[in-house]
Specification:
Rossmann fold, single chain, 346 residues, 7-stranded mixed beta sheet, 21% strand, 2 domains
């Protein structure tokens, strides 16, 4: 999931500085002090970076925990809007060249860059969130988004007054379709007569659907006008627009994504209408990788964080789920033991 940040200044970087300087429009933060022998952790965020109150911030929490626990030095770089694949490669290479190990790439858009750069630096351990890499020195950190979304669907069906609910996806990518599939199945299994409106804000290689709150608001208003009273948005920064629109409709609920959006300072005024959020615990995946490198036994291959392992979950801020928690717990148990098999496509 992604969220677009503002580019505050233009800059020019020469090719000679490309591997040591952050690219135009990206941000960089580095912990002070550099001691020999100290662990160095590199983090390459997706667009929006630290402070997006969603996907990137979840990864940042894992970095912060590892930094505190292991006394590590860290460097954080952030992708910019409209960059080229070469920009992502350059960002990862600058961290690897700088002695950072592990280097964590946050977001599926880094897959090709990770495959290329990890192969070039076989002695560096890399992490890739939300996609599976081919290089042997990469820990691919993935989640069963569909399982958390199933529970959101159960909640939506139980809270909706007349069974009219909606799903807004940022982009019609396989990753986002997993959210849609799980949500729709959860709704239908709970109330077979319910209707689920599904809409994507952009398609294909156009990733603007992850960073357009206006598009999220417009889509949500359209669904509300058609009778929906619960809307789940898995759309990065665009979700803020949906949450705002839903808050303007009396009796309607929104469902957030990736981080607990009821705790997002920029969305605090809408917390009473945010029923829950489908959280992916990216922080756990990041921390696990760093610890494994620290322990001398680096994780590699694919690590799948499931509902049973608390890799995905529903937040309970505001106690809006209290009256239906027993039914949610029942559904979670059935998913964990395999009684319910959640689809990944609609």
């Amino acid at each position: 999931m992604r969220r677009v940040s503002k580019i505050t200044a233009a800059c020019t970087v020469t090719a000679a500085l490309a591997l040591t300087a952050s690219a135009c429009g990206e941000s960089s933060t580095e912990s002070s002090g550099s001691d020999k022998g100290k662990m160095k952790i590199g983090m390459a965020y997706d667009v929006g970076g630290r402070g997006d109150n969603s996907f990137n911030d979840s990864a940042a929490r894992g970095l912060d925990k590892a930094k505190s626990e292991f006394g590590a030095e860290t460097k954080e770089l952030t992708a910019k809007t409209g960059e080229t694949p070469a920009d992502r490669e350059q960002r990862l290479e600058s961290l690897a060249e700088g002695g950072y190990n592990p280097v964590v790439a946050v977001g599926f858009a880094y897959k090709d860059a990770v495959d290329k750069i990890a192969a070039k630096y076989p002695k560096v351990n890399f992490g890739l969130v939300d996609s599976v890499a081919s290089a042997k020195n990469v820990d691919s950190i993935v989640f069963t988004e569909e399982q958390g979304s199933y529970l959101a669907g159960v909640a939506a069906a139980l809270k909706s007054k007349d069974g009219q609910v909606g799903f807004i996806g940022g982009v019609d990518l396989p990753l986002i379709k997993k959210f849609a599939a799980g949500f729709q199945q959860g709704v239908k299994d709970t109330n077979p007569k319910a209707k689920v409106q599904i809409q994507y804000l952009s398609t294909g290689s156009d990733l603007s659907g992850f960073g357009s709150p206006d598009k999220g608001s417009y889509a949500a208003k359209g669904m509300l006008d058609k009778g929906a009273d619960v809307i789940f948005a898995a759309a990065g920064g665009s979700g803020a627009g949906s949450i705002e629109a839903v808050a303007g409709k009396k009796g309607a609920w929104s469902i957030g994504v990736d981080s607990d959006q009821a705790l997002d300072p920029s969305l605090a005024k809408y917390k009473d209408t945010i029923m829950t959020s489908v959280v992916k615990n990216v922080d756990g995946g990041v921390y696990d990788l760093v610890k494994s490198v620290k322990d001398g036994k680096p994780l590699a291959g694919t690590q799948t964080y499931t509902l049973a392992k608390d890799g995905v979950s529903l937040t309970t801020t505001g106690d809006h789920l209290k009256d239906i928690q027993a039914k949610l717990d029942e559904a979670k148990k059935k998913i964990a033991d395999g009684t319910i098999k959640v689809k990944t496509t609609t």
